[in-house]
Amino acid sequence: MAALRPGSKALRPLVGRSFSGGVGRLARERRAERRDAAVSRFCPPRHSCHDWIGPPDKYSNLRPVHFHAPEDESPLEQRLRELRQETQEWNQQFWANQNLTFRKEKEEFIYSRLQAKGLGLRTESGQRATLDAEEMADFYKEFLSKNFQKHMCYNRDWYKRNFAITFLMGKVALERMWRRLRQRHKTTS
Amino acid sequence: MAASPHTLSSRLLTGSVGGCLWYLEKRAIQGLPHRVTHLFRNVNNQWVMVQHLSFLKRMYVTQLHRGLSQRVKPKPEPAASPFLEHTSSGQARAEVDELPSPFVPSLPLSRKPNEDLVELEAASIVDRSLDIAKETKEEKQWKEMKVHADDLPGILARLSKIKLTALVVSTTSAGFALAPGPFNWPCFLLTSLGTGLASCAANSINQFFEVPFDSNMNRTKNRPLVRGQISPLLAVCFATCCAVPGVALLTWGVNPLTGALGVFNIFLYTCCYTPLKRISIANTWVGAVVGAIPPVMGWTAATGSLDAGALLLGGILYSWQFPHFNALSWGLREDYSRGGYCMMSVTHPALCRRVALRHCLALIALSTAAPVLDITTWAFPIISLPINLYISYLGFRFYMDADRRSSRKLFFCSLWHLPLLLLLMLTCKQRPGREGDKGEAPS
């Protein structure tokens, strides 16, 4: 039930490179634990032989998948499952960090702008003070340009992984079809 | 995660009249695993949702009437519950029954334990119950990734962005209808089908590439690949099964030029526009070309050649894309910034508005060029002037005000402006044999 962590060393540098956020390692690990707990807490029904997909994660907005490992799993199927699992974790880390950083920097920006204007964090009615879209535009532009390199690395890795997973899925599907044909041939002959 | 306003804790805390009271036996509370009764009430109607509870020793069903009466009725535990898959601490699996409540008679309670004890226990149970409720609710949101044959058409329709495909096919049809020469129905149908298939393929590949980005944007978070309703392999297979027959239909059923344009457009959209969205603002110009090619394909399907009329029609669609997309992107700046999309509205806001206005004005110029190239009569620039001026006015307002309101007005105007413009073009189409009669008044 717990997610298998393959020692795929080739992909480790990718994880490190695309992860240049300013969030502490401890916070990251805590989040990873929470996310792992969320995925591992779910147990699919015993009779099910499919993967299960859950609701969007609070931080990354990505939907976690619980991968099903059948008893007669071939090495190729195992490789596919491990690659998907690792890609899921890698994606989760990137987007959770990205969204949290965005939220944090947005709050800081709003606070600093409000301070510059001489306003407090709350309006007279007690509601949270916000800036309008035009004032926020400066922040959006700055955030996008600051994270540009990070996104370039992520895009490249994401495309590579997506192609690899889909290609492996194709191979697995062919392997399964071949296996079924052979079994049918054996039973008929 | 917001709790339902009708959860137990709110009832106990607010003490609202008609709230539910829990009568739980001490034995049942102390037993393992912890299972709790939840009561939910839908205030909109008389139906009561009751969650079937299964303790170790006995099962209780509590019904809440809209009034103040309630009853607790012990029920014998069934021999084998088909809904209990497994038990482990911290997990609750409950069966939900829906019962009509109006006819529940008020009966005296069978048991009434010490109220203080109940309150204390209820408070601790509330916390556990909320946790378990949250877990149960989350658990229920997990879906098996199994494709059902009944759902497949709907899923594939959403994967191929069927509504957008329909719009693309209609612009192709407009191009076909505007082209000179007799209207050939079989050719028209083949062109429409081929273009539709090519568009489905391109849209599917686009969604295949953009899964994590789509998950993070409100507009796109319910797409099939994001929700896991279909696997990436199936999406790619579907795209291939659309692209190959679509292009083949266009190449051999219509003409090779249209087929080539179809392949080029698929390539431009999937391999240029989609990755470019995250690299440079040039993606908007590439996307405008992608939108301009379908009517050109319609024209080349009818005439077999890429002449000035085709390019003018393509030019009109090209110019239209800018007020349409730039206005739309104005309201999505936060999502684009967070998701890493390079859009003019985020990086160069002034350019964004300037380009939108520029192309609104270009539409007037292109409409005027239509009779010059013998596509329409001179009636066309005259009767299309009001709508062209209106969209230009909205473009000007967007340029000056640069706010959400003006961007939305421009976007919604663009949605009806294009179909109306194409319709006017069709009604003013230059008929054959009247090519010298440019000054003809509209009939």
Automatic annotation (TrEMBL), chain A:
An example Gene Ontology cellular component term from the record?
mitochondrial inner membrane
State whether keyword Membrane applies. yes
Q: Which UniProt keywords apply?
A: Membrane, Mitochondrion, Mitochondrion inner membrane, Transit peptide
GO BP, one annotated term: mitochondrial respiratory chain complex IV assembly
**Topology class, membrane:** Peripheral membrane protein
The text of the family note is: Belongs to the COA8 family.
Q: What name appears for this protein in its UniProt entry?
A: Cytochrome c oxidase assembly factor 8
| Species of provenance | Mesocricetus auratus (Golden hamster)
Taxonomy of origin reads: Eukaryota, Metazoa, Chordata, Craniata, Vertebrata
Automatic annotation (TrEMBL), chain B:
Cellular localisation: Mitochondrion membrane
Q: Specify one Pfam family.
A: UbiA
| InterPro entries attached to this UniProt entry | Protohaem_IX_farnesylTrfase, Protohaem_IX_farnesylTrfase_mt, UbiA_prenyltransferase, UbiA_prenylTrfase_CS, UbiA_sf
Main location per UniProt? mitochondrion
Its EC number is 2.5.1.-
Coiled-coil intervals in this record?
A: none
* Any one GO BP annotation for this protein: copper ion homeostasis
Into which EC class is this enzyme placed?
Answer: transferase
Membrane-crossing segments per the record: 230-251, 257-276, 283-302, 378-398, 410-427
**Keyword hit for Transit peptide:** yes
Q: Classify the source by domain of life.
A: Eukaryota
Q: Which reaction does it catalyse?
A: heme b + (2E,6E)-farnesyl diphosphate + H2O = Fe(II)-heme o + diphosphate
Region Disordered, residue ranges: 70-91
GO CC terms in record: cytochrome complex; cytosol; mitochondrial matrix; mitochondrial membrane; nucleolus
Record keywords, A-Z: Heme biosynthesis, Membrane, Mitochondrion, Transferase, Transit peptide, Transmembrane, Transmembrane helix
Q: Which GO terms describe its molecular function?
A: geranylgeranyl diphosphate synthase activity; protoheme IX farnesyltransferase activity
> Per UniProt, what is the membrane topology?
Multi-pass membrane protein
State its role. Answer: Converts protoheme IX and farnesyl diphosphate to heme O.
Describe the family membership recorded for this protein in Swiss-Prot or TrEMBL: Belongs to the ubiA prenyltransferase family.
Q: What is this protein called?
A: Protoheme IX farnesyltransferase, mitochondrial
State the encoding gene.
Answer: LOC101829317
